[in-house]
Specification:
Elements: H1 2-19, H2 28-53, H3 59-73, H4 78-106, H5 125-133, H6 137-146, H7 150-157, H8 173-193, H9 197-209, H10 216-226, H11 228-244, H12 251-264
Length: 278
């Protein structure tokens, strides 16, 4: 606990130093000298923070510490930042493995364990991944898939299958967790896509390779504003894939198919519309 508090204090100190500015009246030469000295101090403190993070007992605490340090390191060395972000992901994977092992050990001894299969109050992915995405959205998206727990991956694969939701009553942790993960993936996809049509096309094709999900539609919409013909061609490929699948067995694919149908029955755009209809 003490190590964690000291580490947090150091990170807050580094943040304040990194954001601090020299007085405007300082001559340029002196200003540059002070800035260099301040930058060197910040880097030294960051290096010490990173070393201290290894002493934290819990994987999730180390993950947050590495992510915060990587975020602050970005202005000095983006390569080092990415290494720290990957270290944070490694700690999350280690945490996931511990949680999965604990669930296996508790199986059969707790009649309510199935209710908490998808509940992890110590999950730091929603905190760490957006922090990484603010610096490198493509890397954050890559780490999203690497750090996705095995139980969640399985739940997403069987989402919508008869009986897959379990008897949870009004509280359905599996469905809620899948929805949260889909929303996080969509957020990171949109950040990674940016405004580059080629990057958007690549992300759409990569998403299709994992299966057809609702995440594809916002990407197609974004591409349509840039290159409508490419968006229509890719949209056609998505529809063919949906038509070839049994959407009755997948709630996610069913929702995607219904969304495409909604666009199909929309009234035509007004003649003076600034953008062509999707």
């Amino acid at each position: 606990m003490r190590t964690g508090l000291l580490l947090l204090s150091t990170i807050l100190l580094v943040s304040s130093l990194a954001l601090g500015q020299a007085p405007a009246a300082t001559p340029d030469a002196e200003l540059q000298k002070k800035k260099k000295e301040l930058d060197e101090l910040v880097v030294r403190l960051l290096d010490q923070t990173i070393a201290d993070a290894g002493g934290l007992r819990l994987h999730q605490n180390r993950a947050v510490a590495y992510a915060m340090a990587g975020n602050l390191y970005w202005k000095f060395d983006d390569k080092r930042s990415r290494e720290l972000f990957r270290s944070a992901a490694g700690e999350i994977v280690a945490h996931n493995l511990e949680v999965e092992r604990e669930k296996l050990e508790s199986a059969g001894s707790d009649p309510y364990m199935y209710v908490y299969e998808f509940v992890d109050v110590n999950d730091v992915r929603p905190e760490v991944l957006p922090m990484i995405a603010a610096r490198d959205a493509g890397l954050a998206l890559e780490l999203l898939f690497q750090t996705r727990p095995a139980s969640l991956t399985a739940a997403m694969a069987r989402a919508g299958e008869p009986g897959s939701q379990g008897d949870f009553g009004t509280f359905n942790p599996a469905s809620q967790r899948v929805s949260q993960e889909v929303a996080l993936e969509q957020r990171l996809l949109m950040m990674a896509a940016g405004d580059d049509p080629e990057k958007i096309v690549t992300l759409i094709k990569e998403s299709m390779a994992r299966g057809v999900s609702y995440n594809i539609i916002p990407l197609l919409q974004k591409l349509h504003k840039k290159e409508a013909e490419k968006a229509l061609d890719l949209g056609g490929e998505v529809i063919k894939k949906l038509a070839a699948s049994d959407v009755a067995k997948s709630q996610l694919e069913m929702r995607t198919a219904l969304s495409f149908l909604q666009y199909a029955v929309k009234p035509p755009a007004a003649p003076n519309a600034k953008e062509p209809p999707f």
